[in-house]
Amino acid sequence: MKNISLLLNAVLIVAVGILYFFQFNGNQKAEGQSVKEESNTPQQENAEMLNKDLLQVVAFINTDSIFAKYELAIQMKEDLEAEEERLTKQLQSKESQFMSEYEALQRNAANMSQFEGQMKQQELLEKQQALVDLQDRYSLKLSNLEQEKNQELNVKIRSFLEGYSKDKPYEVVLSYNEMGIIRWGDKKLDITNEVIRQMNEQYKAGQAATTNK
Asked: Contact at 8 Å (CB) between 171 and 13?
């Protein structure tokens, strides 16, 4: 059975984000050119920088870092791995029992009648098929559990970003990983570390509140 891992590449409104980025970046350049044509005084340059900050409507988060450092994501991964190990042990126990019966049939085949041998062989074939079906059910169970965890994590991240961005100029928060669609972005647009820090603070506070109940 394959190891379960949380590989969530949730790209949030990429097309809209890129549109905003280039649109406002173009506006900034146009405004900057007009200002320079009028004057290059320090006051106007400071105002230009302030306007540039206010027009920062796009931010980025690195999902690889969030999955590696967000404590809820870490706990989810550990839970999935623990469940996979539990189901694998159950399956291995049943497989071991099946092999014991198969070896016993080989040892005792000479002492059985043809009818007894055929009945025992049919019984083992049915148990073998049951093992295959059980493995498929376990794989499906793990896959469904992984999807549930991913969905829960996605909801947590989206909910946090909605609150986090209320007092920020961001209109779009894009997610990326090392092999994602976004290959480069200005470091000042990357809010990953701050998001991880605040999400972990919220997670720890929630855990402490649950423990104290």
From this structure: no
Q: Which two tokens stand for residue 57?
A: 């409507």
**Could you give the CA distance from residue 2 to residue 26 in angstroms, rounded to a whole number?**
48
Spell out the residues 6+ positions from residue 76 whose beta carbon is closer than 8 angstroms to its own. Answer: 6, 149, 152, 153
What is the block-wise mean pLDDT of the chain (213 residues), using blocks of 10 residues? Answer: 37 36 46 46 47 67 93 94 95 92 86 86 91 94 95 93 89 84 81 94 86 71
Q: How far apart are CA 22 and CA 17, in angstroms?
A: 9
| pLDDT given for residue 212 in this prediction | 72
For 132, other C-beta atoms within 10 Å of its C-beta total 9
Which candidate, 194, 158, 159, 190, places its Cα nearest to that of 177? 190
* CA 58 to each of CA 87, 164, 189, 190: distance values in angstroms, whole numbers, following the listed order: 44, 14, 7, 9
At residue 107, the pLDDT reads 86
What distance in Å separates the CA atoms of residue 203 and residue 140, rounded to the nearest whole number?
29
